[in-house]
């Protein structure tokens, strides 16, 4: 297999510098967030891949729909960060905004510095319910004031949305029918980048030091596992080994995850086995390297985990040219390291992995992929972060890897 990629830049939002969220909606089409967090007074646009035109449609600006204008002088509604959550029964796609974009007249924004400033402080994480059948925003609300939403999850059976806030790193639950948020408590200081839901409606994430954290709604308790997730014991302790991306298996009995730290590990978790589930270390996701040389997490990265129609897991892991130990080395010099985004396939039965392609962006490095998804035609899509304008990759799949209901069961978290 030699998969080829097609690059779709966000030409309708040329200042966009990141695409953190990409998901299959309840209609099976691909939705993406064209974010702009480095430019003052900008906003995020909702984008959808148009399979008829083989192009991108720009649906709306979030600041307009949220009633929080980008030129207000406050921190902007600049991004949707791992916060798409579909609702299959009514065709709604929930989305929530995150902070970081500076006000229109400032070069940067600090949520701590401006916390008590009513004219500068971020208004709050905007929550939107978008009807994918009618192409309209049904309602909007605020998840919580002053903070952004780092990641979002939908428990459709119980009508609840769970999220992690930033910067305080609290776990919240939002009752959709009542439009009411409840703070379930603080998780730590480093936000995990994902939540996942098990068959018993328990919500899982991770703490600062790589411990599993679980909220049990039937007991109304937040619990912390005594064990640390897999990491490299040579130069890591588990600190910052939080979830980066989590993909559910098609059967729904386990999840596959990558961690958010240099030399990330792939992990498989069976949440219903034992007191704290069964955790399998599937090994490092990226290349072995000399631990004497510092490597940044933007370079050494794995994301975009998604199952395709063939029942196999696909993801993108970075690869780069390792520096010579005796040469001067700048870990942030991407040109010298020439990072690339390699598409991998993992066979669930054996956990065997193989390279099946490479993402190619004509004008920049394609190594950093936050999220991946498969559409109702069975093709893969990957989000990208890099030089503006960023965009998304489409990876057409061979016929034997397709099926009409490839996105099902839908991933219910961002």
Describe the protein's architecture and organization:
2% of the residues lie in helices and 39% in strands. With 414 residues, the chain is mainly β. It has one domain (6-401): Methylamine Dehydrogenase, Chain H, CATH 2.130.10. It has a 4-stranded antiparallel sheet with strand order 1-28-27-26, with no helix packed on it. A 4-stranded antiparallel sheet has the order 2-3-4-5.
**Which radius of gyration do the C-alpha atoms yield?**
20 Å
Write down the domain tally.
1
The coarse silhouette is globular
Low-confidence stretches: none
List the helices and strands and how they pair.
Elements: E1 6-9, E2 22-24, E3 30-34, E4 45-50, E5 55-61, H1 62-66, E6 84-87, E7 92-96, E8 124-131, E9 136-145, E10 148-155, E11 160-166, E12 170-175, E13 180-186, E14 196-197, E15 203-206, E16 211-216, E17 221-228, E18 243-248, E19 255-259, E20 265-270, E21 278-284, E22 302-307, E23 313-319, H2 334-337, E24 340-346, E25 353-359, E26 372-374, E27 380-383, E28 391-395
Antiparallel strand pairs: 1-28, 2-3, 3-4, 4-5, 6-7, 7-8, 8-9, 10-11, 11-12, 12-13, 14-15, 15-16, 16-17, 18-19, 19-20, 20-21, 22-23, 23-24, 24-25, 26-27, 27-28
Question: What's the short version?
Answer:
Helix content is 2%, strand content 39%. By secondary structure, it is mainly β.
Index terms:
2 helices, four-stranded antiparallel sheet, mainly beta, 28 strands, 414 residues, single chain, 2% helix, Methylamine Dehydrogenase, Chain H
């Amino acid at each position: 297999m030699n998969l080829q990629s097609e690059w779709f830049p966000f030409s309708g939002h040329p200042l966009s510098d990141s695409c953190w969220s990409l998901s299959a909606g309840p209609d099976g089409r691909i939705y993406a967030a064209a974010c702009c967090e480095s430019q003052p007074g900008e906003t995020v646009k909702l984008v959808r891949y148009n399979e008829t035109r083989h192009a991108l449609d720009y649906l709306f600006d979030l600041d307009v729909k949220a009633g929080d204008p980008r030129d207000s002088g406050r921190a902007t509604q600049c991004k949707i960060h791992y916060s798409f959550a579909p609702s299959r029964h009514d065709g709604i796609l929930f989305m929530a905004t995150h902070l970081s974009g500076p006000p229109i007249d400032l070069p940067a924004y600090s949520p701590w510095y401006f916390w008590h400033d009513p004219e500068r402080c971020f208004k709050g994480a905007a929550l939107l319910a978008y009807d994918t059948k009618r192409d309209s925003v049904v309602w909007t609300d605020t998840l919580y004031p002053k903070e952004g939403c780092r990641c979002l999850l939908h428990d459709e059976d119980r009508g609840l949305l769970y999220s992690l806030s930033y910067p305080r790193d609290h776990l919240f639950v939002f009752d959709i029918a009542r439009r009411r948020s409840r703070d379930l408590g603080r998780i730590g200081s480093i936000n995990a980048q994902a939540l996942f839901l098990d068959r018993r409606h328990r919500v899982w994430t991770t703490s600062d030091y790589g411990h599993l954290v679980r909220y049990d709604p039937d007991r109304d308790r937040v619990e912390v596992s005594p064990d640390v997730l897999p990491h490299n014991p040579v130069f890591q302790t588990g600190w910052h080994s939080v979830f980066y991306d989590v993909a559910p298996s098609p059967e729904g009995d386990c999840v596959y995850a990558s961690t958010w730290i240099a030399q990330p590990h792939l992990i498989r978790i069976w949440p219903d086995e034992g007191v704290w589930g069964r955790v399998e270390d599937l090994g490092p996701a990226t290349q072995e390297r000399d631990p004497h040389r510092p490597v940044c997490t933007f370079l050494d990265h794995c994301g975009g985990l998604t199952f395709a129609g063939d029942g196999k897991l696909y993801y993108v892991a970075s690869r780069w040219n390792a520096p010579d130990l005796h040469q001067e080395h700048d870990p942030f010099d991407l040109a010298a390291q020439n990072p690339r985004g390699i598409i991998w396939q993992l066979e669930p039965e054996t956990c065997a992995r193989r390279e099946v392609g490479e993402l190619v962006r004509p004008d920049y490095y394609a190594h950093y992929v936050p999220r991946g998804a498969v559409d109702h035609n069975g093709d893969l899509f990957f989000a990208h972060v890099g030089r503006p304008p960023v965009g998304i990759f489409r990876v057409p799949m061979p016929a034997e890897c397709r099926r009409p209901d490839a996105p099902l069961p839908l991933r219910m978290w961002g």
